[in-house]
């Protein structure tokens, strides 16, 4: 049996310490489930800037192509606030998405029963919440041309960005959303701003076409982005799968995550297109950032990173039962009362990053 | 004394019925406060489409220029879902903003003590919330060129919109925000997505410059739009004044409003630039939409429209004490237990649109 080839990119801030906990899970899988992993580690973000002067090297992109999947920590460091626009740490993740064609970002926003009280929303509003946001990640205003800042004849400036979506870009991400919905509650809500933006009008038309042609069994609705932000706060459980563009997805998925009250718990997957050889590039990362304020203290919550790895097992390696086991172990450890600082509550036992990691492996 | 010239544009859905209640307040001001009003009413949105085949006529724009202020209801009607992009009811408000140069949309998000429980957020998180969002409304991706949908050689399509901001557009809205902050808690948070968009980078630079040059006494912070959506849910009371572009402002101001649990209570003002003759075009509208589902039933909440009129007195006519009186009357009526359906709670007295309007005038 071939070893699983993983590229591990811990990045900045708490990235390295939470990624380390995944190492324990990998060791367990090798020992108890007969899997073998071939790990390659490299630098991205501020860590790469410090060592190589760029947020990501071409070599790392090549390694990502060669791997079965990429396990990503997080990038971003206020230390690099002064660098030029093309050198900022975030370029690492943007370039990985674009060069590997990672167009579908899957972001579950799920409320864990044990943590329902940590939300700022009333428990009755969020209990049992389970939304999947599918965000397009290689198009839209993030990558459209023309872009930049130009100086006008009078010395003042003009900043420009361009939102572009083509039929095929919309089709492929819509398909991912409809496919996912079939395995869930079979409902998709497509979000744009078609009352103001023509790109949103095209988005709505194309999603409607894909639905009619290939997924008539799935329930489809449409919502304006501003209304969606409101509905997420008023009645988030009305949603099953949401599908939207890059910029709206950035904002709405962060909003949805926050409803759960436990950002440190939420994983994500970003999937590319199936290649000629049947392989599909994919990257897995927690949705929390690099949290420089608590980095290096051993108090970060490793669960989002561990659940990102569970998504990797599920989507890239088709190891459903191993993924289920890890998710169950996380639930059990929470039920037993262990909590990292970010999700601490009265009467619970407060633990650090590695004790949480160990507890999850022990539970396995 | 010259009469106050108002252009009244009730629009669609519940617009006409809530605007009608403002009529009572105007009558009271004429009788008790010695003011005289000269009202002109006209059609916009679906109502104008039905009568004239366009969402707004040039004549209405001219009347808006001639007026001291515009009192707007709301536009939007699912009946007109099929019309072409340039004829949709929303064009009425977009055109008024653009043609009158109404660049600064002021949207307070305030929690009324009597209604703190109607939020889906925990009372402890939103009690006393009082944010002012200043949204730029004549620039950004709403109006940038090129825009549209083009057909590619292979028959597929491409939708395009352009985000553009110039130094002067950013300066003038930043000034409005800093000025407002001085009359409040003296703090401004500027929101963009400068880690991905150059237009956001320029936004941040210009706001920083305006601050350093003219408002060093105001506290300024910067936040990414995705993080801002999260912070609004996690800890909304950290904010005083938020200033942001058209698209982010659309989403974030709706989000902020929803935190209050009472959309039917929230007014807005949209201000233009001072003209050579000292006049300043301005439009006042509730932030709730046309709510076609409850239109014509006499159950809509008229308070947001009435408070929009109070903002008109305050910002366009400098009638501070009259504005204060109306705001106080609204608080008192709520404290006395009257509620329209949207804010109904146990033990309160449920009333319709006109009983609520009458009660507020009686309180005056
Ligand atoms: C780091 C940043 C460029 C990124 C984005 O805006 O896409 C992040 O916010 C995310 O959501 O993954
Ligand atoms: C009606 C619509 C065009 C408008 C907008 O998107 O600006 C509305 O949502 C608003 O916020 O005033």
TrEMBL record, chains A, B:
GO molecular function, one term: 3-isopropylmalate dehydrogenase activity
Known pathway: Amino-acid biosynthesis; L-leucine biosynthesis; L-leucine from 3-methyl-2-oxobutanoate: step 3/4
Keyword presence, Cell inner membrane: no
E.C. code: 1.1.1.85
SMART domains in alphabetical order: Iso_dh
Cofactor(s) for this UniProt protein: Mg(2+); Mn(2+)
Reaction(s) this enzyme catalyzes, per UniProt: (2R,3S)-3-isopropylmalate + NAD(+) = 4-methyl-2-oxopentanoate + CO2 + NADH
Binding site for Mg(2+): 226, 250, 254
Keyword presence, Oxidoreductase: yes
Primary localization class, coarse: cytoplasm
Cofactor comment: Binds 1 Mg(2+) or Mn(2+) ion per subunit.
Span of domain Isopropylmalate dehydrogenase-like: 5-360
UniProtKB keywords: Amino-acid biosynthesis, Branched-chain amino acid biosynthesis, Cytoplasm, Leucine biosynthesis, Magnesium, Manganese, Metal-binding, NAD, Oxidoreductase
Amino acids binding substrate: 97, 107, 135, 226
Pfam families, A to Z: Iso_dh
Marked site (Important for catalysis) residue numbers: 142, 193
Compartmental location: Cytoplasm
Positions contributing to NAD(+) binding: 289-301
Family, per entry: Belongs to the isocitrate and isopropylmalate dehydrogenases family. LeuB type 1 subfamily.
PANTHER family attached to this UniProt entry: 3-ISOPROPYLMALATE DEHYDROGENASE
Function: Catalyzes the oxidation of 3-carboxy-2-hydroxy-4-methylpentanoate (3-isopropylmalate) to 3-carboxy-4-methyl-2-oxopentanoate. The product decarboxylates to 4-methyl-2 oxopentanoate.
Subunit structure: Homodimer.
This protein's name: 3-isopropylmalate dehydrogenase
